[in-house]
Amino acid sequence: xxKLTLVLGLIFASQCYGQxxxxxxxxxxxxxxxxxxxxxxxxSKFISDxxxxxxxxxxxxxDCFVHGCxxxxxxxxxxxxxxxxxxxxxxxxxxxxxxxxxxxFFCPGIVSCADIIAMATRDxxxxxxxxxxxxETGRRDGxxxxxxxxxxxxxxISISQSVSAFAQKRxxxxxxxxxxxxxxxxxxHCSLFQNxxxxxxxxGKPDPTMDTTLLNILRNKCPQNSDGSNTTFLxxxxxxxxxxxxxFYQQILQHKGILQVDQELxxxxxxxxxxxxxxxxxDFNFKFGQALVKLGRVDVLTGNEGQIRRFCRSVN
Length: 316
Known about the structure:
Order of helices and strands: HEHHHHEHHEHHEHHHH
Largest sheet: 2 strands, antiparallel
Number of strands: 4
Strand content: under 5%
Radius of gyration: 20 Å
Helix content: 40-55%
Number of helices: 13
Oligomer: single chain
């Protein structure tokens, strides 16, 4: 009886964690290749704006961490997830809208907005010289989107708190370290790290772990009494700021992390060895892709759950 209960529990857990997702879910369901349609839209956007890579990575992360990967972040509404403070600077909705419109033209009512987010993110990573990874599809779209439900890890969170937050989504320490590597193409507003420049942890002094040259550069960009709206690259290797690669990890090992959680990633015993291995290794692109696949499995809706939205910004 105990063995049977354990087996049933494992089956149930795997179903909740994306058992019904599969590579090539839409094959035979549309007269054209769905993934190629989405890729064409992303390529067109990328030509004029390379920042869409960071935007789509962030969009997928923010969606999956609230109600799972169900495209709930796309829904409009006075109190929807879009209106929550952490999501006010989220971008990329226009890309998903364009991809959805193109897919609907050829395959009406077939492809979920949640799957389009996953496909578009993968395509943008590839365009930014990251590795190819096969996207699992078969998600359905959620019906609920509430700002009050948005609880995302803070940029000043400790590593142990971050590990706990990721564990709640069934993502382990390795997943967390690689997913934070998405910051390799990210930007941050001064308001997110200004305390590190002037009054770290109410000390009246800057964060002692920050490289002094970087500190002076950032102080010029983010004056103490400014509104914090200026931005800087999270990967301070400016020749690599639009490329998905391991440069981010090499920078934080040099104490050039911008966000507190990024710098702690290189310093905390829980994650420091992993950062060293990634910075000196050759498999970042592959493992980053695999971490994104695992992120894409978080609390998905499949089968008869949810719906296939005809428009990503509203329920049918």
